[in-house]
Each structure stands twice: as C-alpha cells, then as structure tokens.
Write a structure and sequence with these properties.
Organism: Candidatus Limivivens merdigallinarum
Largest sheet: none
Pfam family, one: Zn_dep_PLPC
Shape: globular
Strand content: under 5%
Radius of gyration: 18 Å
Number of helices: 12
Order of helices and strands: HHHHHHHHHHHH
Protein name: Zinc dependent phospholipase C family protein
InterPro entries: PLPC/GPLD1 (IPR029002)
Domain Phospholipase C/D: 7-131
Structural class: mainly alpha
C-alpha cells in the first residue's frame, strides 16, 4: 500500500479531473471521500496489539479481485442515491484501488531486488510526496487525515461485512497509530525504533515511522513510484467515469476491476 499521504494526494489530484457531477459529490462530502482514499487499509490497525479477524478481513479484501466490491458498491449507491456520502466514499475507494494496483507489482519487485521492507519503500515515497507538496514530512500531522466523526463512520458501513462499532473503532485506531508514530524530532524516532526492536516488531512496523535520514537504496524505487503515481491519475479518472456510467445506465464494469489491489 502506498501510505496515507500518498493516497490522500492522489485522490485530490484525480478528483480535479473527474466529471463535474462527480467533483460536486466529492466536494459536498469531503470526509467520506477522504477516508475512502485509504480503502481497506482502514482495518489494518484495528486493535493492532494482537492479531484479530478485523485485520485479517482488511488483508483479505486486498487480495480479492475488486469487481465484487464495486458491484456491491453500485447497489449501495442505487439505494442511498448518487448525491450521497456513500458515493463519495466509493469514489475515494476507487482511487485507492487504482493507485495500489499500479504500484504494488513494482513494490514487490523492488523488495526482491533490494531486500528493503515494503513499508520502508513506501515511507520514502511518502516523504518525497510531502516534500513536493511544500510541507515538512516530519512535522506534517498524518493523523489529521483520518476523520472519525459519526456521519463518516456511517457512510462506510454499508460497503463491508461489519458493523458500525467496528468501523468507529477502526477509524479511531488508525488515527491513534498515526499520532503515536508522529516523530517530528530525531529523539522520538530513536525511541520508537528502540521500542519496536525490543518487542520484535521493527521488521514489520519500522516503516510506520518517517525516518529523518533518507535511505539511498530507495532512491530508484522512489523515482519509479513517483512516475507510476502520475500515470495512475488518468486511469482513476477513466474508471470513475466507467463506474458512474454503471450507476446511471446499468453499464458493465471495466475489465480493470478484475485486478486485485496487489
């Protein structure tokens, strides 16, 4: 998964090129669209101190072809209405799917070539994108990209095999994890790394901290991922138009929806 800011920025850039009617939906319901941009990653940090069915559910969604999710999403929008917060969420989710499916095959190859962990490769991309947006990657508050209000939580529930309390808790945990791993100064980064190493979680979770020292081994992968990021934007626009046609006219989802997020 490209990380939280990458998905946020990608969705904002793609939405600028959506048809006017879809732009209006996104602008009317910015919070559901924003969290939709995180896709099933929403569930990855649910009570992360132990393995659980919610985390496994999020991982399973990542490995399934997206078609079934979007076919169900179309039914949700037919029930809730095209001018709904649910449709805004689905449009955000679409952007997440496109960026992941563009980037993940390359990330897997880069991991094999360099031995660098998935999260660390994406962490370097995250820093590059935050810098390109004119911000400091170490003081930028990623946790504030996670809405936790009741209306947003309710907009998410119809799309998943889950309930409102689970979605509420997932949102709060995602925001909390991003807040805990916020390290604006080197001493906190050092402390977090020491704690993760002490509990044997550094290999799997070390990439959640934005490292103050860039990894030169990731420079090539970062350049490639930035290129994939740019090339994925027109595809997100095209698939949003296809999805909207299915909602309006009962059309057929594009074969691209047969891909998984991987």
């Amino acid at each position: 998964m490209p990380a939280i800011f990458a998905h946020e920025l990608f969705g904002r850039k793609a939405a600028k090129h959506f048809p006017e009617a879809l732009q209006s939906i996104v602008q009317t319901y910015p919070k559901p669209f924003r969290i939709g941009l995180q896709g099933p990653d929403l569930f990855f940090f649910y009570k992360p101190y132990k393995g659980n069915d919610v985390i496994r559910y999020g991982n399973r969604l990542h490995n399934l072809p997206a078609r079934a999710f979007f076919q169900h999403g179309i039914a949700v929008v037919h029930e809730k209405g095209r001018e709904s917060q649910e449709y805004a969420y689905l449009l955000g989710f679409l952007c997440h799917f496109v960026l992941d499916s563009f980037c993940h095959p390359y990330v897997a190859q880069a991991m094999a070539d360099t031995g660098i962990a998935h999260l660390e490769i994406e962490e370097e991309l995250e820093k590059a994108l935050i810098r390109q947006s004119g911000r400091d990657p170490f003081t930028f508050r990623l946790d504030r990209l996670v809405p936790t209000d009741e209306a947003t939580a309710r907009s998410i529930v119809p799309f998943y095999e889950t309930d409102l309390p689970t979605v509420r808790t997932s949102l709060r945990w995602l925001r909390l994890v991003k807040r805990l791993f916020y390290a604006p100064r080197l001493p906190k980064e050092t402390f977090l790394k020491a704690v993760m190493k002490a509990v044997g979680k550094y290999d799997s979770m070390g990439g959640l901290v934005l490292h103050h020292q860039d990894n030169p081994k990731c420079s090539e992968s970062t350049d490639k991922l930035l290129s994939l990021f740019r090339h994925a934007i027109p595809e997100a626009v095209r698939l949003a138009e296809n999805l909207d046609g299915c909602i309006l006219d009962g059309g057929v989802l594009d074969p691209r929806f047969d891909r998984t997020f991987e």
